[in-house]
Write a structure and sequence with these properties.
382 residues; 13 helices; FAD/NAD(P)-binding domain; 2 domains; 17 strands
């Protein structure tokens, strides 16, 4: 980067944006991150992530945080289990022995975010900055306006603000589309004591039970928690069509049970025995390929650039690699324009390939023979 240090603003304090900020700061380049949350603890950060060697772990290495990550990670969480609708375990993949060269150890999203936030200079993240609009003011400079009435100018605005990005419309008119699959999230606490049968069925990592376009995905998190996604291939407004108020736990439970007639009681416990309510999470994805023309002073990373269904397990990993790659390009190139061009030349084809794979994974898992297709993938069968 040249002697005139650019003003860099990252919108969104997710894994990709935070990795980008961390790598930039390690090399003496100032950056500010703006996030709409009021504080780091304002909302639940979601489930668990497996960090892949060539993407997520590579980004953590570039950030100088790989050793810290490994100290927090759960190698045992790599266990992958497939269960039939009758409750029988048909596949039980044991993780490699803490081999990070091949393994994909798990970490809770909240712990990963905490690690990344703790690595940044104090004051890097501006909390409570809900972006309302981005305005070009000339020569590649953009003005960010926030809901609290404040504003700031930047020579580079990095949209790391997720599925419904406020930055993306300045680059492309693409909008996320419903994939046809909805996850209804619920959870269990103190599982080994209070829900030992569900804990045993889930195992130490992830359990999937798939059949006839629906199923269960249960993830072991740290702290004795299991996060469960009850998955349906259904209309986006399935609950309205069924006359179900999502705030009515009993009504949601009854509606979900009606979708799993004939399934084993071992699995139906993931619906009937829940400690929490239900959160409806329709899965969306951007069109593939999602591309845009180079625009001075703007770029995207993570879900803002390549939102894909989470079933493939690559979204967060790719977002982190995006952040590290963009930071490295800004460090190595003379101008912001050169850096963004080099970054997008790698980003766009890579993300298109990953998004195609993610779409295929969802179609396979939630098709009529989902269990067989997932089992074939896990065992390498053709």
């Amino acid at each position: 980067m040249n002697a005139t240090v650019p003003r860099i603003a990252i919108v969104g304090a997710g894994p990709g944006g935070l990795i980008c900020a961390r790598v930039l700061q390690r090399h003496g380049i100032p950056v500010t991150v703006h996030d709409l949350d009021a504080s780091p603890a304002a909302r639940d950060q979601g489930g668990t992530l497996d960090m892949h060697p060539g993407t997520g772990q590579a980004a953590l290495r570039a950030a100088g945080l790989l050793a810290d990550f490994l100290a927090l990670a759960r190698p045992e969480g790599q266990q992958m289990r497939v269960v039939g609708a009758d409750g029988r375990i048909v596949f039980d993949g044991t993780p490699p022995e803490a081999d990070t060269s091949e393994g994909t150890p798990e970490i809770d999203r909240g712990r990963l975010r905490g690690l990344l936030l703790g690595s940044l200079a104090p004051g890097t993240v501006r909390w409570g900055h809900r972006l309302t609009r981005v305005e070009p003011v000339g020569d590649g400079v953009h003005r960010l306006r926030f809901a609290d009435g404040t504003s700031t100018d930047a020579d580079l605005v990095i949209g790391a603000d997720g599925a419904w990005s406020k930055v993306r419309p300045l680059l492309t008119g693409a909008l996320p589309r419903y994939t046809g699959v909805t996850f209804v999230e619920t959870g269990f606490d103190d599982v080994d004591t209070r829900h030992p049968r569900l804990a045993a069925l889930t195992g130490a990592g992830t359990m999937m039970a798939l059949h006839d376009r629906r199923g269960f995905v249960a993830q072991r998190n740290s702290g004795g928690h299991i996060r469960v996604y009850v998955a349906l291939r259904a209309d986006e407004d399935w609950h309205r069509r069924a006359g179900v108020d999502l705030a009515d736990t009993a009504a949601v439970r009854a509606a979900l049970l009606s979708q799993f007639t004939g399934w084993s009681d071992r699995l139906l416990g993931f619906i009937t025995d829940t400690d929490t309510g239900y959160v409806n999470r329709p899965l969306y994805a951007l069109p593939v390929p999602h591309i845009w023309k180079p625009t001075p002073g703007l770029t995207l990373l993570g879900d803002a650039a390549h939102l894909m269904a989470p079933f493939s397990g690559v979204g967060a990993n790719l977002a982190m690699l995006d952040g590290a790659d963009l930071a490295r390009a800004l460090i190595d190139r003379t101008t912001v324009e050169q850096a963004v061009a080099a970054y997008e030349k790698v980003l766009l084809p890579r993300s298109a390939e990953a998004a195609e794979g993610a779409a295929g994974a969802v179609d396979d898992a939630f098709g009529p023979d989902g269990a067989e297709r997932v089992l074939a993938h896990l065992t390498g069968a053709r």
